[in-house]
Amino acid sequence: MVTHRYRHQLRRFARTLSTAVDGCPSRLFANRYPAAATNVLSVPPFCYEEVIANPFEFESSRQYESLERYIKWRGWNINSILSIHDLDDESTSKAAIGLLSHPLTFPLTLARHWTTLSGNKPDRSIRLCCVGARAECTLPDKYWRELLFATLATKIECDVDTLMQRNTIDFVGPDVPTQLKSKTISLDNRGGNTSTQPPKRELKMNFHSSHLHEVVLKMLKSQPESSTEEIKNVWDGYVLFNPGLGHPNLAKQWKPTLKFLIGTGKPILLTAHSTTDAERDRQVLEKLLCDDANKTVQYSINPYASKMEFVDPFSKDHVLSPNHSFFLLT
User: Fold this and answer.
1) What is the pLDDT of residue 47?
2) What contacts 305, CB < 8 A, 6 or more positions away?
């Protein structure tokens, strides 16, 4: 029953993306070996003591930074899982990791840049706004919890008096499903020593099926004593997952939103679906930042990108991978 509901949630998450490329190894693996795929996608238990004793460092050495390294550190033994199903060849292992990369790409991409988005003060609770949210909204909770694991693993400490850190993400965009309600995901210490009290960490997720300017206007109306400048400080940073800033079908809609975001002076994490997508977005950002000689726009390959490939719904020749590359504007 639980497994069925979980797989249903994951399928709903996948449907929010464009059509999968024919012959995508990870999709073929999931279709041919559903039992093995379910085991691969099952999240391993969490032990606070083990995380603290052996923390994961996202940028300790970019040369060796990879999703595979995180998967191993976190306790996913892909080869062992596959051997149970008599599937232990290298190509199948790559396909399985590719499948797992898909739900992990959003929390891990965000966790990698958490310190910068927090204003380099990761010990405090922060509030982020995910602008133009889509697929990430329907990601099952067990994967968003990886954000809490990953940021804890980077030696972030919380208030020693309260042993609590509450972070918030507001998912904003016209494609946010209207039925989604605010919820809170917590990090517990299952599998650990109950005599050790871990810092309690929570991630509150709010959902707004509206454009950002509509959300801001609503805030101003509900808080008439607040100024526009004060509203700008509601969020500590912004995240735009695969926005398509320079896509011919989307560029005009993004321009006023981008001007507002840049005007806040807060850090902005942007990802792109492909090299082509990143180049189009780069050109848009460079035009908007042309008056600031200190700002250089350069997208980089994201080590926590999804390894699954999809077809651009606007161009069948354009192959996409969610969060393929990233740029952090500070």
Assistant:
1) 79
2) 67, 101, 105, 109, 321, 322, 323, 324, 325
**What per-residue confidence (pLDDT) applies to 197?**
55
Give the Cβ contact number of residue 80 at 10 Å: 10
84, 38 Cβ separation under 8 angstroms = no
φ/ψ (deg, to 5) at 199? -60, 130
Partners of 240 in beta bridges: 270
Angle at 210 between CA 286 and CA 175, to 5 degrees: 80
CA distance 71 to 93: 12
CB 181, CB 137: distance < 8 Å: no
Q: How far apart are the first and last CA of the chain?
A: 45
Q: What is the pLDDT of residues 228-263, one digit of tens each?
A: 677 778 999 999 999 999 988 888 999 999 999 999
Q: Residue 330: what pLDDT?
A: 92
Strands laid side by side in the 268-272 sheet = 183-187, 200-208, 164-172, 127-131, 237-240, 268-272, 325-329, 300-301
Q: Per mean pLDDT, which range of 88-97, 199-208, 298-307 is the poorest?
A: 199-208
pLDDT over threshold 90, residue 60: no
The pLDDT score that the predictor gives to residue 16 is 46
Give the residue from 329, 315, 308, 330 showing the smallest Cα distance to 95. 308
Task: Return the sign of the alpha-carbon dihedral for residues 270, 72, 10, 125.
Answer: negative
Q: Residue 2 has what pLDDT?
A: 41
Q: Which of 45-59, 120-134, 272-286 has the lowest mean pLDDT?
A: 45-59
DSSP state of 123: T
Are β-strands 237-240 and 268-272 bridged in parallel, bridged antiparallel, or unpaired?
Answer: parallel
| 192 and 47 Cβ atoms separated by less than 8 Å | yes
- Are 285 and 277 within 8 A, CB to CB? no
